[in-house]
Design brief:
By secondary structure, this protein is mainly alpha-helical. Helix content is 56%, strand content 8%. It has helices spanning 5-25, 27-61, 67-84, 88-98, 100-110, and strands at residues 116-120, 123-127, 133-135. A 3-stranded antiparallel β-sheet has the order 1-2-3, with no helix packed on it. The chain is elongated.
Length: 172
């Protein structure tokens, strides 16, 4: 129930914000301000989203995982959703997510940079906390296989399969 409380209170806070701003600047100006904030947000989202995609591509080209860029893209997508929701509180939250220092703080606070591994183009890349790649084995062996089971009568190493069978016990 505690987790749902912000979602239940947000619409009430937005309505109160509309009423307060409408009382100060008028109803028509309030609607115009909401529309202008949404339009400005869409333009900012478009610009920063393309920039984030470009940086992610550069990181992948250099063999590094684009963890920070993926986090920035997630924040920008959330900002876009917040801009679609009419209201001043969600617009302020979205504008905060557009600021790179805020996203950087959230990134560090969330502990997104952790050790792990990533398979990129056949190379297994292991990165440390700084995001520096270390290639464990650059050799790639590409193979296909299928499992061949022994025939019913050839269960042990002392029994040989029929001569027309391709299956042979190990060592024979």
């Amino acid at each position: 129930m505690r987790a749902l409380l912000p979602f239940l209170l947000l619409p009430l806070a937005e309505i109160a914000g509309f009423a307060w701003v409408g009382d100060r600047i008028g109803a028509l100006n309030t609607v115009a301000l909401v529309l202008l904030a949404g339009l400005a947000g869409v333009l900012i989202l478009r610009h920063q989203g393309l920039d984030t995609l470009r940086r992610a591509q550069q990181r992948m080209d250099s063999g590094q995982p684009p963890v920070r860029e993926a986090f920035d893209g997630l924040c920008l997508a959330l900002a876009g959703v917040l801009l679609i929701i009419p209201g001043f509180i969600t617009d302020l939250m979205a504008l905060a997510l557009f600021l790179p220092p805020v996203r950087g703080w959230l990134f560090r606070r969330g502990g997104v940079m952790m050790s792990g591994s990533l398979n990129m183009g056949g190379r297994t890349t292991v990165w440390r906390d700084q995001g520096q790649p270390r290639y464990t084995d650059p050799t790639v062996i590409d193979a296909d296989f299928h499992e061949v089971r022994p025939p019913d009568g050839a269960a042990g190493p002392d029994k040989l399969p029929p001569p027309d069978s391709r299956w042979r016990p190990p060592g024979r």
